[in-house]
Structure formats: structure tokens, C-alpha cells
Amino acid sequence: GAVVSQHPSWVICKSGTSVKIECRSLDFQATTMFWYRQFPKQSLMLMATSNEGSKATYEQGVEKDKFLINHASLTLSTLTVTSAHPEDSSFYICSARYRVDYEQYFGPGTRLTVT
Amino acid sequence: KQEVTQIPAALSVPEGENLVLNCSFTDSAIYNLQWFRQDPGKGLTSLLLIQSSQREQTSGRLNASLDKSSGRSTLYIAASQPGDSATYLCAVNYNAGNMLTFGGGTRLMVKP
């Protein structure tokens, strides 16, 4: 149980285009999903927290108009990188939890490369 | 600002050795602490979760300890194997809201 998937697992896009990444909880309802970014040989940095049916809460320094997060259902959250630039190239990982006092379960990550 | 530090950043050991990875955190008022494993280009696999009321957790060859008063946790790996090669991350949850603060990770290489 407690499986989180991400799609796509990797994507290459051209500078200026937008890319959507999906995060799904496959066998539980996730009231909260988290989005992290990880640069090579660095740790995970929390970008934003999204609760189902409400606006995401972004961490300081993360542009909400550039990284659009939607959590429309209890099993799906999406992260859209708008007008992507090469510096947005990174590994994006989502996690999901059932309830506030429950453990987070992590997805396998999405490798984004912007050329 | 809550900070989580992992030492060493990288470690290379021969197969069969017992080893200890360290994690320190600046604020001792934690809710729980978690150790993860990350293989290159992959997501995170949860290894052990220690609640603030616990002092250690064990799973197979892994043992994690927690000392809140000193702001430290250790991950002990017994009889290391090449398959243990990965990056190990510790993450601290400072409140029941489960906002994880990650350390920088320790990249472990176990040589056959």
C-alpha cells in the first residue's frame, strides 16, 4: 500500500514552453501533497504544499506564477512549470499523505531538462 | 531557521564493514525523524521513522537512534553490502503538520 506515482518520469522541453507533471496517490486519498525540487548532488527543497480543494502554499523564493500547482482531487496533484528556462532543469519529486499525522509517501520523481 | 546537517557528505567503505551515518538538527523540539534511501535518479525509499518519544528503531541490518537533547540521530548499517550504495537522507518533522526538513545527504559507496 501507500504508492505514489509520477508522470512523466522524464521530460525534455524547449525553453519558453510549459510542462505539466502529475502526482497520483494510487491506493489512498491524499489530503495533502508536497512538491520538492532537487538539484544534482543536493538535497530536497520543499517548493510548495497543496491541500485538496484549496490554493497551494509556496515556500519563500518559489514563484507561484511560474510553478502552478493544482490539487483538484484527493488522488491527483499537478505541477506546471510555465515558460520553462534551462535553470528550471531539475529533479522534481512529489509526496503525499493521507492525514496530518500520517507519514509522507514519495513518488519516484520526474527529471525535467529544458534546452 | 531549522537546519539539518549530515556528516559525512560522502563515505566509501569496503564490503562487510559496519558503518554509522550522522544527522544533527538545530531545534530539539521535533515531532519525528525519518531516514530515507535514494538511488541515483530515483525517488525516496523510507527506511526508518523514529517518533520523538522513541530512542531507536531497527529494521534488518539498519538501526536508527535518536537523541533529542543533543540534536542527533545516527543510522547504523551492519555488515554493509554493495547493494547498500546510495544516498542516505535524514529528514526532521518539526510539527504534526509533517513538514519535512531534509539534510544534505550522505553518499555511500560500498566497494566489493
What can you tell me about this protein's structure?
The complex is a heterodimer of chains A (115) and B (112). Helix content of chain A is 0%, strand content 52%. With 115 residues, chain A is mostly beta strands. In chain A, strands 2, 4, 5, 6, 9, 10 and 11 form a 7-stranded mixed β-sheet that branches. Chain A has a 4-stranded antiparallel β-sheet with strand order 1-3-8-7, with no helix packed on it. In chain A, strand 4 (32-38) and strand 5 (44-51) form a beta hairpin. The radius of gyration of chain A is 13 Å and the shape is globular. Chain A starts with a strand and ends with a strand. The mean pLDDT of chain A is 92. The model of chain B has no long low-confidence stretch (mean pLDDT 93). With 112 residues, chain B is an all-beta fold. The N and C termini of chain B lie far apart (41 Å). The interface between A and B is medium-sized, with 25 and 20 residues.
Helix-strand blueprint:
The complex is a heterodimer of chains A (115) and B (112).
Chain A: E1 4-7, E2 10-13, E3 19-25, E4 32-38, E5 44-51, E6 57-58, E7 67-73, E8 76-81, E9 90-97, E10 105-106, E11 110-114
Parallel strand pairs in A: 2-11
Antiparallel strand pairs in A: 1-3, 3-8, 4-5, 4-9, 5-6, 7-8, 9-10, 9-11
Chain B: E1 4-7, E2 10-14, E3 19-25, E4 32-38, E5 44-51, E6 56-59, E7 62-67, E8 72-77, E9 86-93, E10 100-102, E11 106-111
Parallel strand pairs in B: 2-11
Antiparallel strand pairs in B: 1-3, 3-8, 4-5, 4-9, 6-7, 7-8, 9-10, 9-11
